[in-house]
Amino acid sequence: MRIIPLDTPEQVDLQAAKLMADAVAARRDAVIGLSTGRTTGSIHAAFVKLVRESGLDCSGTTFFGLDEVAGVPREYAGACYTMLKNELIGPLGIPEEHFLMLPVKSDNWERDCSAFVRELERRGGVDLLFLGLGENGHLGFNQPGSPFGGGAWLSVMYPELEERIRRETGTPAHKPLGGVTLGLKDIMHARRLVLAAKGLSKAATVKKMIEGPVTEDLPASVLQLHPCCTVLLDREAASNLSL
Ligand code: GLP
Q1: pTM
Q2: For ligand 1, is residue 38 a contact (CB within 6 Å)?
Q3: Which ranges of 74-233 would DSSP assign to H, the alpha helix?
Q4: Count of alpha carbons within 13 Å of 178, Cβ hemisphere only?
Q5: Which of 42, 58, 90, 207 has the fewest Cβ atoms within 10 angstroms?
Q6: Which ligand 1 atom is at minimum distance from the Cα of 202?
């Protein structure tokens, strides 16, 4: 793990955007994975700004989403598809064939999740994957207890998020909702990982992720074992580290 402590959240965004630009420039048909949430939303804005200012050519790049809310239409404002479309894909004019998302419904999740991972491999494999950090240490929708060796799958959502999505989409309690996500094994297969964390609410989890034991109880701790993982932290997120 390469830990990069920065002062402000804006510096985290800029640094992450530069790493994304480097990956786009390094391989014409680069494959780049994106996450959604408060942390990564402003990274995407910084990247769009950087591309507009520099004229960087993204026309060969494939972007894909790390995870998605299963069981609601992808046009729902809180769906990862819609968030990424609004934040990065739309503003940069990325064509649909260069934007891959996991399915929101399926009669065979195992088959369809494996097909998604195979498509990433067919395009050359994942060059760079951006990650946010759940406060309970989750990565994507891989909650504590998810197997390190697991591939893409339909997982459960954490209760607070499920409750919010049910409320916002009017999804009744009997209709199943889930989080479809790359598995921890798939995440570890990316050539390069960049995890960003900002704010005091992440500080305790950041400390466990970096200084604690590698354990399935804290999915993000597996990143200690990745050969090329960069962790970008603002001052608050890094404030509990003892180093
Ligand atoms: C959700 C997403 C994750 C993301 C996490 C962190 O759970 N499924 O991929 O990393 O939120 O979100 P935030 O950056 O808003 O804290």
Answers
A1: 0.96
A2: yes
A3: 80-84, 109-122, 159-169, 184-189, 203-211
A4: 15
A5: 90
A6: 16
